[in-house]
Recover the amino acids of this structure.
């Protein structure tokens, strides 16, 4: 998800550039000033509370701002991203924005600051006052707004500079040139956004095959907990010796073991475009763990592919695999196969529910040849890719 905050003094051109960026990247526009003025025009409770403050050129209380921002975000759950104009305007609001985006399992991509001198801002706003008809566009109010900006809003820049998200852009010059500079930064930051996919589905649904297809298509790192554990067992490492019996039965390996393996492989690939997770998370606890692991690298799960297959077909596939070189230790006996399917039903289904509540699950019919299943995946995967990047 692409989330942009557009920064700058009053009159810096945020409204003009916001409109261009919104159309280019299909973003939901959130301008606190516009929303508040609409609330005032509607005579709502929030509007009445904010009216006197705005007309004096002051900053509306955070309690009011939070309510209108959260309302706008939550009423657009399928948005490709958000463009914030006029928010955050204080350090407190910067933390508020982090919290609001965190609730949506996303974060701010970048803060773009249009750099315009106070003199130029004043000139632009006085010119606008001649045609705007806005009561808050008097010279006294404008100077107060600029003073408020310097005292309360400028420190926000340091907050985002410390997080590597602050990008100053020269805001004086032709509109088209300024827009190109903004887009250059956005495109560069988008290339840093990881595309992380979780493969869901019962054993035998074809997750491994399709995970490799996705990894090749989008140049992602394929992480399979089953293959990691099999490698550790083959090396007779301490981890392998510890989990061999559990693994051979197809039971869940302790979380602390799996976490270390996944974390190790993530650290090995600092330049990755993203990761494909197959076999993890298998429990609700592991879903929370994965969120934590990805948050440490300023990322999150992009989407989940749930490959669905009838139980009888799953048993046939696993039994057939048990007769090939690709077999796993738990494919060798029908009783073990059934045990794994029963265990999946018990502990893994809540994981699907967890991601469904976030709107991240795409369900695919897993019956048929691998090529047929892949053809069903291509379209939805491309949509998820574009939304993530």
């Amino acid at each position: 998800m692409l989330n942009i905050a557009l920064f700058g003094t009053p009159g810096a051109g945020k409204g003009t550039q916001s409109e261009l960026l919104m159309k280019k990247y299909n973003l939901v526009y959130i301008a606190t000033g516009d929303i508040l003025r609409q609330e005032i025009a509607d005579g709502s409770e929030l509007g009445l509370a904010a009216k006197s403050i705005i007309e004096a050129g002051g900053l509306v209380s955070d309690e009011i701002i939070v309510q209108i921002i959260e309302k706008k975000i939550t009423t657009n759950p399928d948005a490709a991203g958000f463009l914030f104009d006029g928010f955050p305007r204080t350090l407190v609001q910067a933390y508020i924005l982090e919290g609001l985006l965190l609730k949506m399992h996303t974060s701010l991509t970048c803060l773009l600051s249009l750099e315009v001198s106070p003199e130029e801002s004043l000139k632009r706003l006085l010119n606008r006052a001649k045609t705007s008809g806005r009561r808050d566009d008097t010279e006294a109010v404008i100077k107060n707004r600029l003073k408020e900006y310097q005292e309360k809003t400028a420190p926000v820049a340091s907050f985002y500079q410390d997080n590597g998200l602050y990008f100053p852009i020269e805001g004086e010059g032709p509109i088209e040139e300024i827009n190109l500079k903004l887009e250059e930064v956005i495109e560069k930051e988008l290339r840093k956004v990881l595309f992380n996919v979780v493969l869901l589905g019962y054993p035998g649904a074809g997750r491994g095959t399709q995970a490799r297809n996705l990894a090749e298509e989008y140049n992602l790192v394929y992480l399979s907990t089953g293959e990691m554990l099999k490698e550790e067992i083959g090396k007779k490492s301490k981890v392998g010796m510890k989990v061999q019996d559990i693994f051979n039965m197809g039971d869940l390996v302790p979380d602390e073991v799996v976490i270390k393996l996944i974390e190790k492989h993530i650290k090995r690939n600092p330049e990755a475009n993203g990761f494909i997770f197959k076999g993890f998370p298998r429990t609700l606890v592991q879903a929370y763990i994965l969120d934590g692991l990805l948050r440490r690298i300023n990322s999150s799960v992009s989407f989940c592919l749930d490959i669905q297959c009838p139980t009888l077909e799953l048993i046939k596939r696993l039994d057939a695999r048990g007769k090939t070189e690709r077999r796993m230790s738990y494919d060798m006996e029908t009783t073990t196969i059934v045990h794994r399917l029963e265990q999946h039903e018990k502990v893994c289904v809540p994981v699907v529910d967890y991601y469904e509540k976030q709107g991240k699950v795409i369900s695919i019919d897993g019956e048929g040849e691998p090529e047929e299943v892949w053809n069903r995946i291509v379209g939805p995967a491309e949509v998820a890719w574009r939304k993530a990047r």
Remarks:
- Residues 370-388 form the longest helix (19 residues).
- Residues 214 and 381 are 8 Å apart (CA to CA).
- The domain at 197-388 is CATH 3.40.50.300 (Rossmann fold).
- The mean pLDDT is 85.
